[in-house]
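Most newcomers find our protein records easier to grasp once they have seen one. Nothing more is needed to start thinking about how sequence determines fold. Here is such a record, shown just as it appears in the course material:
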Amino acid sequence: MSVRYWNREWLLDTVFAQMRAMVRLCDLETNRVLLANDFARQELGTAEGQLCCADPHQERCSCLSNEILKNDPEKTLHFQWYNPRTDQIFDRHIQVVTLGETLVRLEITFDLTDKSLGGALPDREDYFRRIVESIGDAVIVTDNTGRVTMMNPQAEALTGWIDSSGVGQELVQVFQIVNARSREPVQNPVGKVLASGEIVGLANHTVLISKTGVEYHIADSAAPVKDSAGNIHGVILVFRDVTEEYQQREKMRRSEERFRTLMETSINAIALHEIITDSDNRPVDYRFLEVNKAFEELTGFSAAELVGKTVLEMMPNTEKIWIETYGQVALTGVPTSIEDFSQEIGKYFTVRAYSPRPRLFVTVFNDITERKLMELKLREQVYKDSLTGLYNRHHLESQLPSLDSEEHLPLSVIIGDLNGLKIINDSMGHHQGDEVLRGAAKVFHSVARSRDVVVRWGGDEFLLLLPKTTAEQAQKICLEIDAASQEMNHTGLAPSIALGSATKTVPEENIADVFRSAETNMYQQKISSAQSRRSALVSSLQQALAEKSHETEEHARNLQKRAVNLAQRIGLSDGEVVTSSLVAVLHDIGKVGISENILDKPGPLTEEEWQVMRQHCEIGHRIVASSPDLLDVAEGVLYHHERWDGKGYPHGLKGEEIPIAARIVALADAFDAMTSDRAYRKALCPEKALEEIASGAGSQFDPYLAREFLGMLKEEMNGAPTSPKE
């Protein structure tokens, strides 16, 4: 029968079934076998419908070439490979075939193994050698006694056994390995493989010492060479030079060790974190990975509590800005430095943040709370008055440019001056003056609103700046200050404050002019209230004298009463009566400057002590004369120990050279002194005191005043009312 009349389909089926090539068609997407001839099913062990590489020993399956074929469908691939499981060598051709819209892989594989030679290919040894030599890693093959049977060029280069000089040697001679750290010899892996029949790998710190003494850090594995029956015929050792990788790892390890040491010993708080982002890669939280002791102390949390937790789990009130800032560091790798106050832990600190790896960041905290508080304290000292706690002039000058604007109009100013501060300081001491200043500060602070600025403008001056305040409102605040001053009492002293106000109503007006107007108004008020201020000062000085000399209020009233009665009895003017009254009150004010050891001495004073005691007249004069309103009183204080005969002190005046108020007080004071108990003697009876005054008339006392004084006292003792002399 002619071939040309055979059925084509039958012909193809017959050829396909009988050909000595393995033919398979596989789907490029699923790798399922679509068609396989009988020889392929027999040799490769796969059937139609199975995966192309269902056999786990099919190390060189054609599916490994899928991507190459997809990228270049016109390409035909050709290669040879050896299957050690079946001890066969194959030659394979692969190409792409289009079946409709499906791409399939056509494989045609030929078995090159010479079966007539009992499975040994004439050039198989050469083929194996070419394979080994083409491997990039170093390869040493041994027999089952551990003797080297083959080395590729890479192995010769690393071991130093070139030109096959290592073949036939014991592996321990060719392959000398030690531990990189301990320098102790490492057990030869071939012995382990031969004993166990398992694959063995070397430790990470293995060093190969070549024949020439050069050292290489290596990574390797040793595997048994088995036949199909599982018998071990030798060992194949594959290794490579990883010196550079090892050095990089060691560098990283040392760096990590240094970092860990730094963390553990640093006085700064250090922590390693992992950033947490949302679906849009925006930072929303971060997790603690490592923290040091200082960080535990800073936050109050232990490492066990922190590690693995997020910051919002541990510190829910953490400000969002911190998470966003750290997120930028972790995601961009750009370091940053921040100085701020953490509300969560209540401390000031600087923090430096950097990223060691993507999405990780390290924070180094430096607690600057103490320094920051000192800075704030220094700033407060610059802008605040240490005595009163009010802002000072520097603060007002720094704030004035922003306050002196149209939005704050009308802008009112109140200036207050504390009356008689110098007298209070001189008579009662600066500590008492400071108390009065603090009291005045409290008064101003009590009337100030939240938007107002209260300033200690100078030594005894205060200023109240009132945004959005009319002139009428400012006047009401002045009245509030007056009322608050009267209610306040510091050891018997209420601050007396002269006040003046002015208001800026248009932007063009100069604020300096407004300040000057307020100050002028304050001085006018100060002058108009001189009498009341004088009373306040006298009251203050009385308080100081009573505390220093331990004299009772009753004694002071009696002395003042007798001085006033005598002045009125002899017909002095109202002004002279007032002066006599004040001299009686303040005549011994100078004793505030005399030591209490002298004032309270139980026995007579020595001459030196008398010299000190006599100074109280001049001290008192300086104190009282510090107020211009009391100059006439100061004269009476200075001369109240002068004698009619000129033998007194401090200046030895005599007769009518001595001011009348001083002569009156000398009489009243002498009688009171004689009728009062003293530390060094008992009081005299009134009758005996009258005799002493009578005997001193014309010598110690003004004879006329003495006669009138004695008459007044006798009337007083007899119960008769005293009356002014006609």
Remarks:
- The first strand starts at residue 22 and ends at 27.
